Amino acid sequence: MSVQVSVLENGMRVVTESMSRVETVSCGVWVGSGARNEPAEVNGVAHLLEHMAFKGTERRSAQDIVEEIESVGGHLNAYTSREQTAYYAKVLKENTELALDLLADILQHSIFDEEELERERAVVIQEIGQAHDTPDDRVFDHFQLAAFPDQPLGRPVLGGSDTVGTMPRERIMQHMQSGYGGDRMVLAAAGNVDHESFVAHARRLFDSVPANGNVVMEPGQYSGGAHLEDRDLEQVHLLLGFPGLSYEDDEFYATSVMSTLFGGGMSSRLFQEIREKRGLVYSIYCYPSFYRDCGLFGIYAGTGPDDIDELIPAICEEIKRLPTTLTDREIARARTQLKAATMMSLESTGARCEQLGQQMLIFGRPLTLEEQVGKIESVGEEAVRRIAERIFTGKPTIAAIGPVNQIMSYDEIVAALAM
Angle between the 252-263 and 369-377 helix axes, to the nearest 10 degrees? Predict the structure, then answer.
């Protein structure tokens, strides 16, 4: 495997990884513009733009786009997150140029037809409604809002029905024009691909991308607090969290090891204590969310209303005892889990392509496997203890959906977490 990087005249970075033993190529464009770059009055515009990019260009209808990619057995898709929007495809190696052409077309020549926009607004509103009816998804939006109130980082990626339903065509186009500059875009590919040929096609096909974007990013200011929604459900969906770290923090890898050890699998402390020993939940796990300038650390659990009064104190107790009861064995196991996940990702062209695109956006360069594994292996007990103390002494955030009347008050949770 070999990774190569080139930069086009408009500033777009092109990164490829050659995997000569496979017969496919995954490629995509990662854009450093997402939901946190939206003004409040157009919350949801980044996601709606992602949808509209597939709804027709100057030379292809929406049906043409899907028929062309599927006629060669490939697929084309996209997603929007808080800091990125990605458009990606996977094809057989001989159809790489077609995939590139489709990506270039939708990102430079979409027409945003008014009739298509009207239909797609309705589709996204259905998506918002579906998310609302899925409480174990919806609770994450509540969690984000409680952690970052009244700021872009706290708003939902999908937006609201009111803003999406009235989104003007001009604002969608403006979001693309301001955010989709070459300096904020990475074209990545992994698989049976030749770098020089790929770059030559990219140079020809992406020639209309402007050199500079003009993206505004309001700094994230973690606040913490509570957001509870009472619903008649069989379960309470609960998130308890704390201020986390940015991508650039020196403790990035220590946080990942600690998260894996604490709630990253069936051997983790939370799973063993809360589910296996006490039987309080069906699902429990923790995760770090890293952003450019800040982060979140969350613990999710789903439990019955009768168990919620025991669940939260039990989680708080596990949080408090973590820094003083670490063992070399569980740290080694967490490191091995992370290393294995990193290595296994190299076997998939899609995952490797996404990893390359994100690394270029976040770190400005691809990270070698040796570098990543070395950073993971360097995490020891002191680093895990230090990051646990750093994260879990922060102000908590709690979000829940379901029968929430039995949940401890916010002040009681703060007291239960006191070290």
Answer: 70
The letter for the amino acid at 377 is E
**Closest to 6 in 3D by CA, of 260, 182, 246:** 182
**Catalytic sites, residue numbers:** 50
Phi-psi region of 30 (alpha: psi -120 to 50; beta: other; left: phi over 0): beta
- DSSP code for 40: G
Q: For residue 330, how many C-alpha atoms fall within 13 Å in the half-sphere facing its CB? A: 22
Return the structure tokens found at 357: 């695109």
pLDDT score of 419: 73
**The residue to which tokens 């050659």 are assigned:** 18
Reported confidence tier of residue 1, pLDDT bands at 50, 70, 90: low
pTM of the model as a whole: 0.94
Structure confidence by residue, pLDDT tens digits, 344-362:
988 899 999 999 999 999 9
Instruction: Determine phi and psi for 266, rounding to 5 degrees.
Output: -70, -20
Using alpha carbons, select from 25, 13, 26, 136 the residue that is nearest to residue 77: 26
